[in-house]
Each structure stands twice: as C-alpha cells, then as structure tokens.
Amino acid sequence: MRTKKPGRVSRATATLALAAAAVFGGTLLTAVPAQAQQQQEAVAQSVFCPYRVTVNVANVRSGAGTSHLVRYHLYRGDTVLATQSQTNGFRMIRPGEWTASSNLTRTGGNCLTS
Q1: Which of 13, 55, 87, 93 has a CA positioned 20 to 30 A from the CA of residue 76?
Q2: Which helix H or strand E contains 111, and what residues bound it?
Q3: 20: closest CA among 40, 35, 38?
Q4: Alpha carbon distance 62, 98 (integer Å)
Q5: Sequential DSSP letters for 6-40
Q6: Quick check: 85 and 46 in contact, CB under 8 A?
Q7: What span, in angstroms and rounded, lies between the C-alpha atoms of 27 and 21?
Q8: 44 phi and psi angles, rounded to 5 deg
Q9: 0.70 cut: is pTM over it?
Q10: Cα(19)–Cα(108) distance, rounded to whole angstroms?
Q11: Closest C-alpha to 85, from 48, 53, 113, 41
C-alpha cells in the first residue's frame, strides 16, 4: 500500500484548487475546507451589480477595510460588477478584492445573482 507523504497534495486536490481559482477570477483560495465553503456560499448568495468608478484612483484591497493590503487600482470611468450589499463601507468585486463604496456609483444595467 502506498502512503501519502505529509504536506503533499493529491493530484485531484490540486486540480480542484486550480478549477476553483479559475472560477473565482484567479484568486486561489487557501482557507481550510470549512472556511472555503463558507466563503463560496457567501459569494454564491451575493447580488453583483454594475458600478462606475467616480474617483481618480480607487484602491482595490484584499479585505473590507483600509487596514487590508492594496492589490491593484481602478480608475475614473472604469466599470465593475460589485456586491449590492456593503461590509464596513466596502463592496466586494471578487473574493479577496474590495473597494470603498464611496468610490463607486451604481450604473444602469441588470444585477446578477452569483
């Protein structure tokens, strides 16, 4: 019988992780399975609506708050899909990508339930 070495990930697990990364816009989820499932369920129940960036430069952060790291920037006139609901004054663009609600204005267009 073959034993698995500690710290190794099976090919099936790696394939599932990469598939999840593709679904979530390239963000590889590293949470433990229960946390990952909760995060997926939260995203699955979210309503995403189109918004336009209304400031010159909007920080996109790794979490809902200014204490989180800046991952990249959006610029005036950019359009994004973001959650209709807010957390700490921030809207989620994708898992692990948040921007301040004050940077965005709701545009016309249909909202999507993920």
Answers
A1: 87
A2: none
A3: 40
A4: 6
A5: TT---HHHHHHHHHHHHHTTT----S-HHHHHHHH
A6: yes
A7: 5
A8: -65, -25
A9: no
A10: 32
A11: 48
